[in-house]
Design a protein that fits this description.
Blueprint: E1 5-18, E2 23-36, E3 43-55, E4 60-71, E5 75-86, E6 89-101
Antiparallel strand pairs: 1-2, 2-3, 3-4, 4-5, 5-6
Length: 105
């Protein structure tokens, strides 16, 4: 049996140059939400965001974040991943994951 679901997806991107600071800034992201039409307790929201800064000196910094919140009949689930790269090399990375029982819902 195939699960019927409804979903919404949104994406955006912005870029601009700050000539007085000699840098180019670029940001992009997307959000995707889904819910089961057969079982509304089965739902999720996934978001992703990327920020990039490029200096004329050659320094490049990229921050990437992805998060997800989902649920079923008994629990909510949350995950978050963050990474920062400097000139293409990993500088920082961290992940979080949590499961929380549904109370009073």
């Amino acid at each position: 049996m195939t699960m019927r679901e409804t979903s919404v997806e949104i994406a955006d991107r912005n870029a601009f140059t700050l000539t007085d600071r000699d840098l180019v800034f670029d940001e992009s992201g997307k959000i995707e939400s889904r819910v089961s039409m057969d079982d509304p307790a089965l739902a999720s929201v996934l978001g992703e965001r990327v920020y990039r800064i490029q200096y004329k000196s050659g320094l490049e910094i990229e921050a990437h974040g992805m998060g997800k919140i989902s649920s079923n009949a008994t629990h909510f689930f949350t995950s978050l991943d963050v990474s920062i790269r400097v000139n293409g090399h990993l500088y920082f990375e961290k992940s979080w994951l949590r499961s929380t029982p549904r109370f009073f819902i």
